[in-house]
């Protein structure tokens, strides 16, 4: 909570940063007030690994486009160094000076070998609705804003419901849920802009399908970060483990699917 008598700045922290090892990583923090970006006059950046080990200690930030920025060097993310490990529990600390007052904000972070990215593109949306671009409205040439916000919604929901994010091996398992949420947001925006309830109804249809698809997500993990999935014969969901083509005497019920393979639910 802001201190009484001071401006109530908003800090745009939508999801944790997942930093990638073996390369430099550009990080940024946006500060907003009354609908506009607020440019700090100066500031420092500190990055803590697990166990509160500072791998970057109070280094000066740059201010570009009214946003505080810092590039984390690859040497700070070298897992051969003591205290630097893959996983969550990392923390970014931004100490930014605005109107002569220093404010300190934090963002949770994690370190991964190969962080995943969204796999839904405009091409996938147009595959569902080839004329979709005709409804975007003047000044909009793509759906990137909706793709980004929907991805962040999915990340937050996944984490809130107990999923691990940094070790997910492939983004394709989120594809259907992500696509449906983007379409739900797009059609809701179009319907509200045009005052057309048909589009609003279409949005609600995709919202229901998004919720259904999210419930069925099952993924593979690379928890030891060796670049390979931990167990290629299993998929993990929030409700249990799906073993692919791995019959056991303890699990007598099998169902068809997964590219023709038989699978069982333990």
Give the SSE layout.
Elements: E1 10-11, E2 17-20, E3 25-29, E4 31-33, E5 36-37, E6 42-49, E7 53-60, E8 62-64, E9 67-72, E10 87-98, E11 101-112, H1 122-128, H2 144-160, H3 175-194, H4 197-215, E12 234-237, E13 240-244, E14 254-256, E15 262-265
Helix pairs in contact: 2-3, 3-4
| Beta-strand proportion | 25-35%
Number of domains: 3
CATH fold label of the largest domain: Immunoglobulin-like
Low-confidence stretches: 248-266
Discrete helix count: 4
In what order do the strands lie side by side in the largest sheet? 2-11-10-6-7
- Binned, the helix content reads 10-25%
Summarize the structure.
With 266 residues, this protein is an alpha+beta fold. The protein folds into 3 domains: 103 residues, Immunoglobulin-like, CATH 2.60.40; 94 residues, no CATH class; 32 residues, no CATH class. Helices cover 24% and strands 30% of the residues.
How would you explain this protein's 3D organization?
With 266 residues, this protein is an alpha+beta fold. It contains four helices and 15 strands. The chain folds into three domains: 10-112, Immunoglobulins (Immunoglobulin-like, Sandwich), CATH 2.60.40; 122-215, no CATH class; 234-265, no CATH class. The chain has helices spanning 122-128, 144-160, 175-194, 197-215; strands spanning 10-11, 17-20, 25-29, 31-33, 36-37, 42-49, 53-60, 62-64, 67-72, 87-98, 101-112, 234-237, 240-244, 254-256, 262-265. It has a five-stranded mixed sheet, with no helix packed on it. Strands 12-13-15-14 form a four-stranded antiparallel sheet, with no helix packed on it. It has a three-stranded antiparallel sheet with strand order 1-4-5, with no helix packed on it.
